[in-house]
Structure formats: C-alpha cells, structure tokens
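Batch queue: ligand-bound targets. Current item pairs a single chain with pyridoxal-5'-phosphate. No template structures supplied; prediction is de novo from sequence plus SMILES. Inputs echoed for audit trail.
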Amino acid sequence: MKPHPSRRAVLGAAPLAAALRLDDKPALLGGAPVRSEPFPAWPVFGEPEEQALLRTLRSGNWYRGNGGNVRRFEEAYARATGARRCLATCNGTSALFVSLNALDVQPGDEVVIPPYTFIATVNVVLRQFALPVFVDTDPETFQMDPGKLEAAITDRTRAIIPVHLGGNVCDLDRILAIARARNIPVIEDACQAHMAEWRNQKAGTLGATGCFSFQASKNLNSGEGGAMLTNDEALYERAYAFHNNGSGLKAIGSNFTYASTGHNLRLTEFQAALLLEQMARLDAQIRARSANGARLASLLEQIPGIRPARQYPGCTLNAYHLFMFRYDAAEFSGLPRDMFLKALRAEGIPASGGYSPLNTQPFLKNTLNSRGYRRLFSEKTLKEWPERTACPANGRLCSEAVWFTQNMLLGPRSGMDSIAAAIERIRRHAGSLARLASA
Ligand SMILES: *Cc1c(COP(=O)(O)O)cnc(C)c1O
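Prediction returned. Tokens below.
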C-alpha cells in the first residue's frame, strides 16, 4: 500500500497559515467562511447535448429498436474501456440484475458482497432470492477486505460482487485469484468507477461482467442509465435476451419467439444521445478529478486525525466518484463527526457522513425471515447469518467516514487548498466547537 507522506506541517507553516486565515474564527462561531463561491455545478452540458436531444426527438426514433444511438453508445463505451461487448441498460441496478441472471444465479444460492456500498448491490441479490453474504471492509481503502473473502465462500456461492467504491479500485488481484481458484464468477460493481484502472486496464473489464450506472450523480450521467461490460460472447447474448424480454439478438422485434425469461431493461435513444455527448467531456473531467484528488489527499494527510482512503498499488487510476476520508474525533478535541460536518458546511464545504452499515439494516433481517427465504434456506443457515456476516471494521468506518462529491474536484486546484484550510481551521478551534456541540 502506498505510504502516507511524512506529516510535514505544510499547512501549518507561518506564511501559508496567515494567507489561509487558519487562526480566524470558524464560520460556525461567527467568522467569515473560508469559501463564499460554490463548487462547480453538476451536470455539465451545453449546445452539443441540446442538439443531440433535438435530433433524436425530431427523428421520431426513440427506442433502440428503431434508432441507432444506443448501439453507437455501446460501441463507443466498449471501445473506451477495451471491453469486447457492452450492453446498455436502463440503470446500474439492472446491469447488476442482468449479470446475475446471465450467470444463472438462482434462488437459494449465495452471493458475496461488501457492506460498504449503495443499497442496489444488496437489493439485486435479494430480488434473486439469493443470500447476501457480507465481507468486512478494509478501512484503509474503504473497499472489500480481500483477506476476509475466502472465509465467506461456501459450496453455495454462485457469484462475488466486489464494488469499486468511490471510484477507487478494490484489490482485484487477490479477489480474482480467490474466485478463479474456486471457479466463481466475479461481477464488478463499477457503478462509481467509470474509467478507473487496475494495472492500466479499465475497471469493469476484468471480471465476468462489469456494471456501470449513469444515474444523475455518477461521473457519466444521463439522468438514469446503465451498462454491462463483458468479454464473453455467450454471456453477452444471454444478457441481451434478458434485458429485452427474453427476445435474443436474432429475434428482436421480429417473430415473437423467446430465448429465455426476461425483462424490459432497455436504455432509450434519448439517454444514449446524451451519453454520447457526455463522453466527449469525460477525459478532461477524469484528468481534473485525478489531479485534484491526489492534491487533496496529500494536503489532508498532513492534518492529524484526517486519513484519506488509500489505494492498493494495482490501482493505476482512481476515478474519484467520491473523495473519502476517516475523521478521528480524538484529534479534534472530541468534536463529534456530525458537528465537524456542520462546521465544514458552514465554511462553504459541502460534506456528508456517507453510508450506514447495510448488513444490519432491519429490512434485511425481515426479508431473510420471510416465507420465501425460510423455504429456500435452512433454519441453521438463517440463524447463523447475522454472526457470519458481522462486519465490525465496516461498522467503525461508517461512524468515521466523511465524503466529498466528485463535482468538487472539477474546479481549479485552489478549491482543494480551501478544503484543507477549512479542516485545519476547524481543528485549531475544535475545543470551542466541541463546547458548542455539548452545550
Ligand atoms: C449508483 C450505484 C448503483 C445503482 O445504479 P443505479 O443506476 O442508481 O441503478 C449500484 N451500485 C453502486 C455502488 C452505485 O453507486
């Protein structure tokens, strides 16, 4: 793992501290905020998007059966990622859903997933009436802990879904090696990791499938949308049929015969038109996030009590859908995280505390206790499940995490300096803020 640089107190150096007004009162205590201008807005769009949407509207060809945008987008995204095949879907959840079905994951199977993810990763497993088995999180990287993966696998495990959370990449070398040794397919949930890289290959192209979301908050955006990548032609054909009501590539819209069961999970021509234009902006946005993310990490690593998520050595490009770090209240005079977040927002720096633990959500226990699950799994399996999927490191991480969103990394580098300055100012006045919190 890449070591932290030494904590040279760059921010604390006298001239810089004065320039950044680190000793000024925090905004929450009545001082002037570090930032008064907003971070870059999201989404980013202009004339090309307007024209593309108008062209599609006027063509009257609004779905993939009679237009060409979806096909063109699939080809462009496959080319950009180096995948052999891309299947566009109506969202990222359905890309995962298509993957599970194309890989024949069935009711009664087990699927291994991380607990530090968006809820969709869990929901697709439950919709398949399979058992989600959680692997604890490596708090250094915020990713699935590869050292704990092996213990989660049984002879009922039919898929592993690692998530490249926040655009950082999980330890694919170790995860893929464990999966290959047992012949278990890996579905990469790359919904937050467009164009991220593992050893210079794009995330989402190393597993059996890779799944992406183009929902409004994501780094590539069409409001809603998704895609599945694969290098396996037969799997692609099963996936295509499943997303098209079971109607396979050769049968589309023609003879009403079916290859399998399926759904309608197709992307529209409007979304594909938008995505093709948004892709033209992607390279510049990736470069900005990557440079600003690295800069911000190097600044925040110097502040006691702030530990940015690290990258595994194999991660050659972090897509920075989120900038994530751990906050240690002990280094901030015991200032609770919620109050730290509030103080940051007051300085003009929007921040959130991120996910809550998924493995202990009450709805999950209720689902596993339902009539269907009790038919599919033995009493022993369901009884042992809570302890088997306990994730103590993840629980701690959820209480310490702080996130910034990707759009904050799209502006000039001075924005990163303002974030670091706000945090350092809060740390210097943490005692007063903590007294305010307990008052
Ligand atoms: C956004 C997201 C999804 C689901 O994508 P949608 O397009 O919202 O359906 C799945 N997994 C992760 C990790 C995500 O961030």
